[in-house]
Amino acid sequence: MAKAMNSKGMNRGGMRHGGLVEKPKKPWKTIVRLMGYVKGSTWLLISALLLAVGGTIMQVLSPQMLGQATTLIFQNVSSGTQIQFARLSQTLLTVGLLYFGKFITDALQSTAMTVASQKTTQRLRNDLKKKINQLSSSYFDKHSNGNLMSIAINDMDNIATTLQQSIVQLISSVILLVGTIWMMLTISWQLTLLACLILPASVLVTKLLTPRTQQNFRAYLKTQGALNGQIEESFNGHEIIKSFSNQKEAITDFQKLNEEMYETGWKSKFFGGSMMPAMIFLKNFLYVIIASAGAWQVAASRILIGNLQAFLQYSSQFSQPISQFSMIWNGLLSTVASAERVFDVIDAEERAIYDQEAFPDRPTDTAEVRFDHVQFGYAADQLVMKDFSLAVNKGDMTAIVGHTGAGKTTLVHLLQRFYEISGGSIRIKGTDIRNLSHEELHNKIGMVLQETWLFSGTIYDNIRYGNPNATDEQIFTAAKAAFVDDFVRKLPDGYQTMLNEEISNISQGQKQLITIARAFLSDPEILILDEATSNVDTRTELLIQKAMRKLLKGRTSFVIAHRLSTIYDADEIIVMDQGDVVETGTHRELLEMSGVYEDIYNSQYQGAA
């Protein structure tokens, strides 16, 4: 990031309307990759799994113990003998200890998985943030802020929730299923066959509902990102929307996206939520059949009544992991969808890193900055700069003028490598900027732009942003140089005054002076200035210009000029048209050429000499 950057973040990518999207392209590959982020929490995961195994074993043993107690009571009552309370109490105490142990293992397992899932998503979130900082500006031209925010927040939360709940549940469900089937077989293989009918029925329900759930949930997530982007644009530009009476259009766009989100949302929730009721219906239906068949076997003295009670409990436990599996599978589908969206960003093409031998430096170059036959186009087959050359000497102030779309902003973006050139080279002190890391390059460059960028926080912190290692004395010195100190000390909280989210508690001119103070603190070798006085009153404009002249002194600078009156004393003025330099010279020399510059000058000052 260039020092003292003050371009307020906007939704540059526009809105993306969500629709139905395809299934995950590589679901198992995505799951394996996601598990790679769990490695840092291996011991927590192992602990949770061991606790899950122990708790499940206790759960499997409990019905058998209760069945023994029931059989004991029934036999004593049937034979007319006294109930063996000592033996009964011992059995019930054992059952109580098993239930208590299950409670403890569940609590510890939940804690371990909560920590593991949060640590995993923390690592994933760190990689996502790191990657976003490495992406080129062209990526953000194609992807909306709202969609990226949805990925960073909603998808991450979805992944964390699934990791916390589903992984251990999946393992414990398998153990519970195997243990339950074994215990059921020891009681009655005929009743076990009846209970197993739920398996094909469950598979059928899952196959019917899963594709619709998956398809609609991915569409829901994409539409959610588009809706976030539309809301952000509407909030940031509400004054513009009202000025052009476009409230109806904004509401229509919102309603369209909201309707899409409603449609995909209720469908994904309906199909996903239908799994559990369907499983419960199957479970209850089979329970009635098993109870009837079991009662017949008890009457025929084929099984003990306590064993029937235990079997009925096992049949409920048997359907429990089946039902859990359907919910876990539904959660895994949504997590795969979320993880794919996250990995799509992580796998996006980064800013280019070049081999230094491919672009040899020229240490003998005397220019501070040199554009040498630069070619550039936002699309490979549409060049907006075809052969741009410019040499700027150390300490020179170079003004850039031209009609809208001439390439002024593109020029400074290329200097900062926000975009990569298609041909030629850009060098600073003879070093090709492609041989510098982005951090090295941006440490050399400071920016003060027309649209101020400040963040919610204190005035002190906003100035310190230009150099996080600056001392208090350096910060106050920069503030005084930019004429910030005077108005700040008149505020009730001084430098600790909190700027609100919209930065509306100070004036536009004061905001601009703070960005200049930030640039002073960063002390860059090269300075980029976009006309910073167009939205302020005359008195504040003079103050800002005075601060900017102090900032420019002794620095190599590029000034994008909108008001020609601010660049009369520039060392060189370059006039751009359609991406190329058409005129160069001082103010007086350019007027004498009677070309594009004179046309721009006359359009601003009709009748001026």
Automatic annotation (TrEMBL):
Primary localization: membrane
GO molecular function: ATP binding
Domain ABC transmembrane type-1: 48-334
ABC transporter domain: residues covered: 369-603
Keyword presence, Nucleotide-binding: yes
InterPro entries: AAA+_ATPase, ABC1_TM_dom, ABC1_TM_sf, ABC_transporter-like_ATP-bd, ABC_transporter-like_CS, P-loop_NTPase, Type_1_exporter
Transmembrane region(s): 85-104, 166-185, 191-210, 285-305
Keywords: ATP-binding, Membrane, Nucleotide-binding, Transmembrane, Transmembrane helix
Membrane topology listed for this record: Multi-pass membrane protein
Pfam families for the chain: ABC_membrane (PF00664), ABC_tran (PF00005)
Subcellular location, record wording: Cell membrane
Alphabetical list of SUPFAM superfamilies matching this protein: ABC transporter transmembrane region (SSF90123), P-loop containing nucleoside triphosphate hydrolases (SSF52540)
Lineage: superkingdom: Bacteria
Annotated PANTHER family: ATP-BINDING CASSETTE SUB-FAMILY B MEMBER 10, MITOCHONDRIAL, ATP-DEPENDENT PERMEASE MDL1, MITOCHONDRIAL
Annotated protein name in UniProt: ABC transporter ATP-binding protein
Organism: Enterococcus larvae
